[in-house]
Amino acid sequence: MRLELKTIVTALGGEFHGDASVVVSGLAPLEAATPSDISFLSNPRYQQQLLGSKAGCVIVGVQAKEAALSRGACIVTPEPYLYFARLTQWWKKQLRPMESAHIHPSAVVDPQAVIHPTASVGALCVVERGAHIGAHTVLKSRVTVGEDCHIGERCLLHPGVVIGADGFGFAPNGDTWEKIEQLGAVLIGNDVEIGANTCIDRGALQNTVLEDGVKLDNLIQIGHNVHVGRNTAMAGCVGVAGSATIGANCTVGGGAIILGHLTLAPYVNISAATVVSKSILKPGHYTGIFPVDDNASWERNAATLKQLHSLRDRIKTIEKEIKP
């Protein structure tokens, strides 16, 4: 696909500088871009890459305008990363127009499931009894939607997603386990995107809920009865244990773990690989990671950590002895 820059600016806006008739045929990062590519700079720390980039045009913020002008054509916008995101959406529509709604012949859909006429169900999907799929929602290949689970409008579920498998519930019976039947469902709001092979378990008694605008990466586990607030985003391999409540507009970094029955306030940001072991009731950025080190040093530090409690007691004793 080859497009003049003026076509992009007409579609998406922005303050353009340069030759509007220049033709671009791809999108690329600054360091890899060629004169036939359009690129972007969202973080001023990478301005050096901007100056050395061969991109035919660069999307930049107001603070990088002068630097961008010194190297060639640019589109200036208050939020270059957001502009770039919208450019990728627009570009995809030009390159691959949206397919009409359909149910793939290999999909298995229960007669008592309800699928909106504008929704799409991909190859080898399974939609079980009582499930509802909303308008313009797309299920990619091999998605499973369990009994009585509801998916809202304009959602995108990537390959291998499982919605509504049983939550992990067992009661001890001597040396064995007695299954607790999972009688709830999964309710997913509008404009939700769920990455490949992510699993959302149905609730035990109440429903598992993902509110509008939630974004989940690949290989995420959401346990039974979890409630995720609107516009919260989680990176790959996050695990959320049962009955946790996560507020709106939170972010959770890759590999982080949130233990069960905890509450996260709105606008909480959890760093990657953090284990959240207590409720967080105040917005902010939270991290709980033991820094990586060479093994010998790590073992010495780990041994010291085990002594912290006794060291604290010794310090308290010393403080009492020297207190006037």
> How many H/I helical runs?
6
Using the coordinates shown, work out and report the CATH topology of the largest domain: UDP N-Acetylglucosamine Acyltransferase, domain 1
Report, as a whole number of angstroms, the end-to-end distance.
81 Å
The percent of residues in helical segments reads 10-25%
Shape: flat
CATH class descriptor of the largest domain? Mainly Beta
Largest sheet: 9 strands, parallel
How many beta-strand runs?
35
**Mind telling me the CATH superfamily name of the largest domain?**
Hexapeptide repeat proteins
- Rg computed from alpha carbons, rounded to a whole number of angstroms: 25 Å
How would you describe what is shown here?
This protein has 324 residues and is an alpha/beta fold. The chain folds into 3 domains: 3-95, MurE/MurF, N-terminal domain (Udp-n-acetylmuramoylalanyl-d-glutamate--2,6- Diaminopimelate Ligase, Chain: A, domain 1), CATH 3.40.1390.10; 108-286, UDP N-Acetylglucosamine Acyltransferase, domain 1 (3 Solenoid); 294-324. 20% of the residues lie in helices and 27% in strands. It contains 6 helices and 35 strands. A hairpin with a 2-residue loop joins strand 18 and strand 19. The longest helix has 16 residues, at 80-95. It is flat. The termini are far apart.
